Amino acid sequence: GAGEPLGSELLATILRQRGYTVKVLDTCILNMDLGQIVTAMHRYRPKKILGFSIHIMDMFLRVQEILACLHDSYHQLLTVVGGHAPTFWYQHILENCPSIDIVVRVEGEGAILDLIDFVEGKTTLEDIEGIVYRTSDGQLHLTPPRRLLSELSTLPRIQRDTLAFGMEKMELAPELQTSRGCFGTCNFCSLNSFYHQHPGPKIRLQTVPTILDEISDLYHNFGARFFRFADDTFFTSSRASHERTKQIADGILERELDIRFVIQLRADAVDASVLNRLKEAGLELVMIGIEALDEE
Questions:
Q1: pLDDT in tens, 67-106
Q2: If we measure between CA atoms, which residue out of 270, 84, 110, 58 comes closest to residue 192?
Q3: What pTM was computed for the model?
Q4: Which residues contact 154 (CB under 8 A, 6 or more apart)?
């Protein structure tokens, strides 16, 4: 089902802090067909960058359809795609869609600011890390990888453009991300490969007070009572992770936040004491990935 576009909303928040006007158009939550999407884009008229977030390659087909419907004035914009799928499929995307200028690989918080500087003539594409673009002779150029963000606490609180509408019209659950990455090294999982594309810490944790403040904000200002934690694994098997998770649960209880929530967890991280504490705080569902039921 549809979820909040946290990545796009985070990039929008970062750009707004720099004084730029950004419109986030979540065509899934708004249940828009192709004609409605194109009409909305003509209405909002982007001036510098046209960006698309692509999670799976099926979404690339819709992006191609949208770009094919836009008139020539949009060719003056810098058209950028990013997300999980383009990180791996950048060659296919750029070779099959001439209207796309740039692919941003892995994390986009730093690249989006550099791309704005490029549009404004302050830097060159060659100097922007973590992107792929076409050179003047049509060849694809992969710039050096951008180091992964080391501290999630440096990120601003996301301005949630789509949440109020999503909660009202489709009972959308607000999403929270308290960490990035996974401690696993499963060879069948693209997440492991995704974060190993670029150097830097593969697991980053948000601070507990920041997590609790965001839950409180969504609870009091949006009326949210049901949440989905989007972490790839909400906690690990380490003692430090158990203590951090219990602090989150204790904070929810101390702040008297009457909520229910869903988490994702690795099977080898399951711990009864941690889950019991989370249940007291409102844990309702645990999603566990299982590769096989037989170890052999």
A1: 999 877 777 899 999 999 999 999 999 999 999 999 999 9
A2: 84
A3: 0.91
A4: none
